[in-house]
């Protein structure tokens, strides 16, 4: 009986943590998409696609963090995976808004700072 309770406690704790992180990532993603929509005049279909592409990047970051913790990647491999995901997203974002990366970079930097301070 004690084992069952312990297992249930572990499962519930894990589920709550995972769900909480997902909600946080979703909140960050929604904020980014909303701000990008305002800044660059994106249409609803563009915002929907942007939301999906940015979530792909976020999940790539999350997965590389998990792989590092599990010993599946070295710190350098993790950095490379994150760089690739960022580069892919930044290229996509530049194409979406029709501006070169140099012009969207200030927006991306501002968003990183603002998203860190979201509550």
Automatic annotation (TrEMBL):
Q: Name the lineage.
A: Bacteria, Pseudomonadati, Bacteroidota, Flavobacteriia, Flavobacteriales
Where does the record locate the signal sequence feature? 1-20
Alphabetically list the UniProt keywords. Signal
- Protein name as it appears in the record: DUF4890 domain-containing protein
């Amino acid at each position: 009986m004690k084992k069952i309770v312990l297992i249930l406690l572990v499962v519930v704790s894990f589920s709550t943590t995972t769900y909480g992180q997902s909600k946080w990532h979703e909140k960050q993603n929604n904020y980014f998409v909303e701000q990008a929509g305002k800044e660059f005049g994106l249409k609803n279909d563009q915002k929907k696609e942007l939301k999906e592409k940015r979530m792909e990047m976020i999940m790539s970051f999350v997965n590389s963090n998990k792989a590092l913790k599990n010993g599946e990647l070295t710190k350098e491999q993790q950095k490379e995976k994150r760089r690739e995901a960022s580069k892919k997203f930044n290229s996509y974002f530049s194409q979406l808004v029709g501006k070169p990366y140099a012009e969207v970079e200030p927006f991306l930097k501002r968003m990183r700072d603002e998203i860190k301070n979201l509550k």
